[in-house]
Design a protein that fits this description.
The chain has about 375 residues and is α+β, with helices and mostly antiparallel strands. It has twelve helices and seven strands. A hairpin with a 3-residue loop joins strand 4 and strand 5. The chain is elongated. The two termini are about 30 Å apart.
Length: about 375
């Protein structure tokens, strides 16, 4: 973008330079040309060259243009033609466009000063009446300044409106997040709390010999408490206040706990980690954990006749590769987890994986069972 703006400024300066040189050497548009041609060509050329700097130093550029031309007018006499107007017009417009008030008024003062030197140095303005009539030559510079100031004001108003719109949108988003957080807390949190409390109550009423049932209920309690903790963390993220109590987000460091919990629920899980483990960005770590959690949860729920599941984590050279495979019957699991099944869990995970430029596949395995595999490139992470 900066290169394009720079090229445009150079092009404007080049056009002004060419017009001025044609006027001096080919008498194109010249009405009166006192003094030597080289002096006019040099003055107009320097004024045009200064326009390259007009965006960086608007007032300085206008002062330079006015000084060069005023010096030539005072020494050799003021000519009449388009070149007298062009360079100062571009410079004074730039001052009005880029310089805020009240400094921008110096642009008008410099334009008026240059006009005064020109009017008194023009041999054709012999009388005071001629010089007063020459005020018409000042009008283009005043109009140029006014147009620049109008554009600057319009852009400022547009930016203020955009900022106000963004502020309103941010406020609306914050209010919606708070509403969702309240609903999560009131509905989901209440249900999880009731489920956990009832599971604990039933566990206490079991006979000592009911170890299997006790283990299953303890697993339900553990999952319920963990879900409550994660829900509180999510509510804390959704709320705008930072005072909410937030537990650390889960990651691959919690993989062993996840495997133990699924194993206690009735599906033995083995974990294999290959490659050199590395510290992952927080968002990527959570995404990887959620992928494995979803795979194991689906295997536990849908893999008919499954006697075990295997989790593979590969810290490859180019990507983090994850795989969850069970040895169940296969078709029911595949139907529950295929991409078009409408499962919100996998749909959300696909969006997360897509953020990292990765891929996620759920398919029946050749040897039986179902496999969830994902690849998350390091470069995107």
């Amino acid at each position: 973008m900066q290169a394009r703006i720079r090229a445009f400024d150079i092009a404007v300066a080049a056009v002004v330079f060419v017009i001025a040189q044609l006027e001096v050497w080919a008498d194109v548009g010249s009405l009166n040309a006192p003094g030597p041609a080289w002096a006019r060509a040099l003055a107009f050329g320097l004024a045009a060259g200064l326009l390259v700097l007009r965006r960086r130093h608007p007032l300085g550029t206008l002062a330079g243009v006015a000084g060069v031309l005023a010096l030539e007018f005072a020494v050799f006499g003021a000519p009449e033609g388009y070149s007298v107007l062009l360079a100062p017009l571009v410079a004074v417009y730039t001052v009005g466009r880029l310089t805020p008030m009240p400094r921008s008024l110096w642009g008008l003062a410099l334009g008026a000063g240059l006009w005064a030197v020109w009017a008194w140095s023009d041999p054709l303005n012999a009388t005071l009446e001629d010089r007063v009539f020459a005020l018409v030559w000042l009008a283009p510079w005043v109009i140029g300044w006014l147009v620049g100031a109008l554009v600057r004001t319009t852009v400022q108003v547009r930016e203020q409106r955009r900022a106000a719109t963004l502020q309103r949108e941010s406020r609306a988003i914050a209010e919606e997040r708070n509403r969702i957080a309240r609903e999560l807390h009131d509905i989901v949190g209440h249900s999880l709390s009731v489920m956990t409390v009832q599971a604990a109550a039933v566990r206490r009423r079991l006979a000592p010999e009911q170890e299997v049932e006790r283990t299953a209920l303890e697993s339900v309690e553990s999952v319920g408490r963990e879900a409550l903790g994660e829900m509180r963390r999510l509510v804390g993220v959704l709320r705008t206040d930072e005072a909410a109590d937030r537990a650390p987000a889960p990651g691959l460091g919690d993989l062993d706990r996840l495997a133990e919990r699924v194993t206690a629920a009735g599906l033995p899980v083995s974990v294999s980690v290959t490659g050199e483990a590395r510290e992952l960005p927080a968002a990527l770590d959570v995404t990887a954990y959620r992928l494995l959690q979803e795979g194991l949860t689906n295997a536990l729920r849908h893999a008919e006749g499954a006697t075990g599941a295997r989790v593979d984590v590969d810290y490859g050279d180019t990507a983090l590769r994850l795989r969850v495979r069970d040895d169940g019957a296969g078709p029911d699991m595949a139907a529950a987890t295929r991409s078009d099944s409408g499962g919100s869990g996998l749909a959300g995970l696909r969006e997360r994986v897509a953020l990292y430029g990765g891929s996620l596949h759920v398919r029946p395995h050749e040897g039986g069972g179902c496999e969830l595999s994902a690849e998350l490139p390091w470069e995107a992470a």
